[in-house]
Amino acid sequence: MKNELSFDTKVVQLMGHCPTTGSIIPPIYQSATFVLEEIGISKGYDYTRSSNPSRETLEFVLKDLEGGVAAASFSSGMSAIDAVMKLLNTGDHIICSKDVYGGVTRLMTDIISRQGIDASFVDTSNIVEIEEALRQNTKMVYVETPSNPLLKITDIEKVSQITKKNHIILCVDSTIGSPALINPLKLGADLVVHSVTKYISGHSLIIGGAVISKDQELADHIRFIQKSIGAVPSPFDCWLTLIGLKTLAIRMNKHSNNALLIAKFLEGHHKISKVNYPGLESHFNHEVALRQMKNFSGLMSFEIDGTLSDCKRFLNNLRIGVLAESLGSVETMFTHPATMTHKDVPPKQRQREGLTDSLIRLSVGIENSDDLLEDIRSALQAI
Fold this sequence. Notes:
Blueprint: H1 7-13, H2 53-66, E1 70-74, H3 77-85, E2 93-97, H4 102-111, E3 118-122, H5 127-133, E4 138-144, H6 156-165, E5 169-173, H7 178-181, E6 191-195, E7 209-213, H8 216-229, H9 235-245, H10 248-267, E8 272-276, H11 286-292, E9 299-304, H12 308-316, E10 322-323, E11 333-335, H13 347-352, E12 359-363, H14 369-381
Helix pairs in contact: 2-9, 12-14
């Protein structure tokens, strides 16, 4: 038997079982505190903010799936990203993907900026823009790939060559790819972050985040921040995430296969002016996606060839797909950035960044592909 198990096997087996009772699913250690045997002697746990068996199991699984030395779980994706930002000091500079989750933009422009940390937002899919943004005080490059909602692909290996040369931390938000499709640490990243709310848990049940580190020094820093700030997930949320993780491999295959079929359909439809999906040969960084991803995930965006009213008419006529401000769940979800996730962004700024009134984000679920295609086809006929 080969030494290294395949991802599909590990994702099912790593959670383990209960050694005490033989229960095939380990129990939830839903406790705030733990009893000491005597002064100075514990069974490895004292207070759940510091550590908990349920969270420890989740962190072990995530660490192994990403190929890191350690993982730290958080109560949300944003709290995980905030922990990464706390590695920076006053006077430091960070380079960040321009097309990035809106919460990250707010964190950098409205919060860490008040701590004397400066952020530059560039198109990280263009290596030249990263090089031109470098400063003497640049301490981190933060990349989201595939990006949300325009699905831009950044070449992690090429970026890591720049960061290593300049002794800069490279952090990659890999939420959309998940460990099933891409492992940034193996491509040269120092840290990988996830909103485990999305594909990792997969069922819209919990809010959570994680940071996985490539080396022990960074892992120790992140662990200290996790313990000190205390933005940790509950034992129950950790347990639910572990249950969801067991089906990650098969879910990501279904998400990706459904998405490619829908992207090809939309690309050929006369009422669609543009489709952003890295699995399409027309995607400007399709070759990079082929090289660094095992498949292309379930997220895409596209533009209706029409007005804002046409977009609303399409969205309001969907029967299976639901309107929701999330992604990565088993259900198919549509989002209209201009009126939902990015409604607070000034219209001119949205236009400059490609977030037009006709842009729709689609998180493709695992339903029957024929049903999904018919639902979209029918809604387009309403325009």
